[in-house]
Structure formats: structure tokens, C-alpha cells
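FAQ

Q: What does a record look like?
A: Structure on top, sequence underneath. For example:
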């Protein structure tokens, strides 16, 4: 990407900026992720959550999102999320299960076909 605050996928360096955008449960979730070691399941799951919510896979250098940068994009996504903090926590838990499943399959040498979960909480 061509812009200083724009990366290909959600960067964890943006996570502290998201901490105070919602309620207590969200702050605790972000704090837990920030306290986890780099590359931990929690950090990978948080990145996956934001990649799914922000649509990082469809961002490209000429897009409005890329022009604004990852911090502005992620901030807007979290502020505008229509669900409650409980919904975000559930989506995080799903992302964590997906990460754990993927890592387990990789350790066993089995190929894994990812099944992305983009729907709202409660949807399959």
C-alpha cells in the first residue's frame, strides 16, 4: 500500500486506538488482547475479527478505506457496529475458534479449507 497508515491486513498496532470506542466489555476484550504475547491466539483472533468486520480482504490501494488508513477504517467499523459489545465478544470467540482450528490442522499437517464467518451473531 502507498499510505503511511495503510497495510494489507489489519495491523495490531491499531488495537490500542479501538479500546475506548465502546463499553466496558469491549475495553476488557481489547485489554486482554493487548496484554497477550505477540502472535498469540488472542492477537491472531482479534486481527481476524477486524479483518472480517472491516473487509480488509477487499481493500485495495485506490479504495476510500485505503486512502483514510487502517486506524480510521477500524475506528469507524467498531463505532458503527450495530450489535452490542456482547455480539463483538461472540464474534471474537468465533474467530479464536477458527484460529485454533487452523493452527491445530497445520500442526497435524492437514490442509484446511477455511469457512469464513461474516454473518451477524446467531447466523450460521
Amino acid at each position: 500500500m502507498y499510505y503511511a497508515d495503510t497495510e494489507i491486513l489489519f495491523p495490531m498496532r491499531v488495537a490500542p486506538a479501538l479500546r475506548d470506542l465502546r463499553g466496558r466489555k469491549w475495553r476488557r476484550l481489547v485489554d486482554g488482547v493487548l496484554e497477550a504475547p505477540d502472535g498469540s491466539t488472542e492477537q491472531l483472533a482479534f486481527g481476524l475479527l477486524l479483518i472480517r468486520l472491516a473487509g480488509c480482504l477487499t481493500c485495495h490501494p485506490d479504495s476510500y478505506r485505503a486512502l483514510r488508513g487502517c486506524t480510521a477504517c477500524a475506528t469507524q467499523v467498531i463505532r458503527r457496529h450495530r450489535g452490542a459489545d456482547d455480539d463483538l465478544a461472540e464474534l471474537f470467540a468465533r474467530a479464536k475458534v477458527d484460529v485454533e482450528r487452523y493452527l491445530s490442522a497445520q500442526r497435524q499437517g492437514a490442509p484446511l479449507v477455511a469457512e469464513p464467518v461474516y454473518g451477524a451473531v446467531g447466523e450460521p
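Q: Is there anything notable about this one?
A: The two ends are 33 Å apart (CA to CA).
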